[in-house]
Design goal:
725 residues; alpha+beta; Immunoglobulin-like; TIM Barrel; Elongation Factor Tu (Ef-tu), domain 3; 4 domains; ten-stranded mixed sheet; eight-stranded parallel β-barrel; 13 helices; 19% helix; globular
Length: 725
């Protein structure tokens, strides 16, 4: 006889009423699913892809070079009007100021107030004293511009030095014109040398030696570039090496007077000592031009990313992939540009602030390849026309790749003073500019209805969530970042492990209660450990954030957030070896992958992959019966689609628990365990923590022993008895 689908839940509730004997020393918890789902059709947990670097673990792109087209940077920043004198406006902070003249000739567009949409030129720019705010003489001064209004200013860096490359010696500079055939850029690099006075340009990679080889050079690689010599007989030496060993590639090329594409494949075995990588172009005589270089594995992965990055994402199987790489000062055209024309960008002053990003089309192609929904951080300094074209591009990609939804977030952490040079900190201005932007985004998207507008708020300030929800007409999602364990002082190891499980779900519930009546839902744009404060030693911090228990700690927060009603959550981040604390000590943050090659996941990454295997269908809270302390230490959720069932159980208990799952023994299950009982085990030096197969026992329903601080995931492998599936 076949029964309705609800019969499986009835069988589950019946099975948990039957007694069983616990394992010696184990406390008992009996779980059963709530009848009403907390989230209908729950999404898998997401992940921040992060920015691509040349030095740490975040070497994401197939072309490992930054600014391979040798293009001049885009300078773009936010001005908030403090005062107006004649045609000159003064910014409200010196934080965004630059050297005299930098913004002279720049374009501006007003973003807020009655003058919003007005455009013009910066006729002249000066700082008010050596440490004062910027003074911008506008041509013309927009009618109706008032104090408090925001405008973006955009300038193009001048030709000269080669951004993101290093001039070792000699005459090396960028030059406009005389470009290689088909280039989309505007510049090439020019090297000039004379006998006894060579010129050398270099690019450095994998310089974070404390992490070991985070960019191993193994297998089939390739260097290709365009070059020409101004005179016959000009010779260019090209080398790629890891310091401390023989070069992987060492060639001297005779250049033609016309542009030629040089393709240099090589096979590498990176078996030497740890050391930085270096690519160099050296010219000993004559004048040469070089443009549009590629260095990387000969077989790139989807979207132009390293195959190692793509493989890691497929293991983690995120429901959402968030594109946050510091692109706040970028332009629409640059987000869409190919590698030959894409330019570095900067929204804050300083040489170290230059960033080179992968493109929006590359990111969207990657999302499609790893079956993730895109979560795009849109540069908030874009103007009206840029936002409309952004909508057109996203809608076209949504149709092409079959994305049912694309989250579009207005900037990143507008409330955060650190991003003030491109962040609208005043809630009223934030909401007004975002609404204008999202309206134009919708206009560009036409009949594509998959774009989801998102604004961001400070997690610890739940009142700000409600304020944004009240002010914004367009955004129905408020995104926050409930990081774990901000502060760790010197305590016993056991106390540090316990602190990793401190709850941040309660503030989520409080904030959701304030925004839900206004029709806005809450999302999590970043979540992970953030242990950068306090006086704990580096060793204690690393134990707290990378120990075997850390996977269960992160899982507890993610599952708790989901059961609170948060559908979209993005863990921070795919790769990131370590970071500095407030006291300039190092702690092993932020990556859930310790490295991309050989591809070792930290316990947080293992937990994310495990849970995403189980999330399918509606999410139901687990009702717990048992000891009060034990139930309070377990966070669990069931996932149901038809006759199939998944279960995630995360424990912060320092004891082993006997868990009765409520799943009848007539439903065969597969089960996996991330054992967090020994926090001294981690995956930093070798793979000491791995996901294990768990074998539940039939004890009036499936039951298993869950070690201290551990995570278990169970799934039915076929429809349960009595279902229609």
């Amino acid at each position: 006889m076949t029964l309705p689908r609800r019969a499986l839940f009835g069988a589950l509730l019946l099975s948990v009423t039957l007694g069983s004997a616990p394992a010696p020393g184990a406390d008992v918890v009996r779980l059963s699913p709530a009848s009403v789902p907390a989230v209908v059709d729950a999404a898998r947990f997401g992940l921040n892809l992060g920015g691509a670097s040349t030095w740490g673990a975040e070497q994401l792109t197939a072309n490992v070079l930054k600014n391979p087209g040798f293009e001049a940077p885009i300078e773009r920043s936010l001005v908030v009007v403090k005062a107006i004198a004649g045609a000159t406006v003064t910014d409200d902070t010196p934080w965004t100021a630059r050297a005299d003249g930098l913004w002279s000739g720049a374009d501006f567009e007003v973003l807020s107030g009655s003058a919003a949409g007005s455009r013009g030129k910066v006729a002249d720019y000066r700082r008010a004293g050596s440490a004062g705010a910027g003074e911008f003489r506008l041509a013309p001064l927009p009618e109706g511009l008032r104090a408090g209004d925001a405008l973006s200013v955009t300038a193009s860096g001048a030709a000269g030095t080669v951004p993101m490359w290093w001039t070792s010696y000699g005459d090396v500079r960028t030059a406009n014109g005389n470009l290689r055939p088909g280039s989309g850029g505007t510049q090439a690099v020019r090297l000039a040398a004379a006998p006894g006075s060579p010129s050398r340009l270099a690019h450095h990679l994998d310089t974070l030696q404390r992490g070991g080889k985070l960019l191993p050079v193994d297998g089939a690689w390739q260097l290709d570039f365009w070059a020409r010599g101004e005179d016959a007989g000009t010779r260019l030496a090209v080398a790629f090496r890891r310091h401390g060993r023989a070069p992987f590639l060492d060639r001297e090329l005779q250049l033609d007077p016309t542009w030629r594409h040089y393709v240099l494949p090589f096979a590498a075995t990176d078996d030497g000592p740890v050391g930085p990588l270096e690519l160099s172009f050296e010219l000993r005589t004559g004048v040469a031009r070089v443009d549009d270089a590629f260095l990387g594995a000969a077989a790139p992965g989807a979207g132009g990313f390293r195959t190692e990055a793509v493989d890691a994402l497929r293991k983690l199987h995120p429901g959402y992939l968030r594109d946050w790489q510091g692109q706040l000062g970028d332009s629409f055209d640059n987000r869409m540009a190919d590698a030959s024309s894409r330019r570095p960008t900067r929204y804050r002053a300083g040489d170290s602030e230059l960033m080179y990003h992968y493109s929006l089309p590359e990111f969207l192609e990657l999302c499609a390849a790893v079956d993730a929904r895109p979560w795009v951080v849109a540069p908030p300094l874009m103007g009206d026309d840029e936002w409309r074209r952004f909508g057109e591009a996203l809608a076209a990609a949504g149709r092409r790749h079959g994305f049912g939804e694309i989250l579009v977030e207005f900037g990143n952490e507008n409330w955060n003073e650190l991003v003030r040079p491109a962040g609208l900190m005043a809630a009223e201005t934030h909401a007004a500019v975002a609404d204008r932007a999202f309206a134009r985004l919708r206009s560009g998207a036409g009949d594509y209805r998959g774009l989801v507008p998102v604004v961001n708020a400070q997690f610890v300030n739940t009142a700000s969530w409600r304020k944004l929800a009240t002010l914004s007409r367009e955004a129905r999602v408020i995104a926050v970042a409930p990081y774990l364990l901000y502060r760790l002082d010197q305590v016993a190891d056991a106390d540090a492990v316990a602190a990793a499980f401190d709850d941040v779900v309660a503030p989520l519930r409080e904030g959701i209660a304030g925004t839900a009546p206004l029709g806005a839902r809450v999302a999590v744009y970043e979540v992970n450990f953030h242990t950068t404060e306090g006086n704990a030693t580096a060793e204690l911090r690393n134990l707290a954030v990378t120990g075997a228990h850390s996977g269960s700690a992160l899982a507890r927060q993610l599952v708790g957030g989901l059961l609170a009603g948060v559908r979209e959550q993005a863990v921070y981040t795919l790769a990131g070896f370590d970071a500095y604390t407030g006291e300039r000590k190092l702690v092993r943050l932020w990556g859930v992958a310790r490295d991309l090659a050989p591809g070792r996941l930290r316990p947080t990454g293992l937990a994310l992959a495990m849970m995403n295997e189980a999330i399918d269908g509606d999410a139901h809270a687990a009702i717990c019966q048992g000891g009060t302390a034990a139930c309070g230490n377990v966070t669990a959720a069931y996932f149901r689609r038809g006759g199939k069932l998944g279960l995630i159980v995360a424990s912060r208990d320092a004891r082993t628990l006997r868990v009765h799952t409520g799943i009848p023994c007539t439903a065969p299950v597969s089960a996996r365990l991330l054992d967090g009982s020994d926090p001294t085990r981690n995956n930093e030096a070798d793979e000491a923590v791995a996901v294990q197969t768990l074998t539940p026992r039939c004890d009036a329903g499936w039951a298993f022993d869950l070690p201290a601080h551990s995570l278990a995931v169970l799934r039915t492998r076929q429809p349960a008895a009595g279902s229609r599936e």
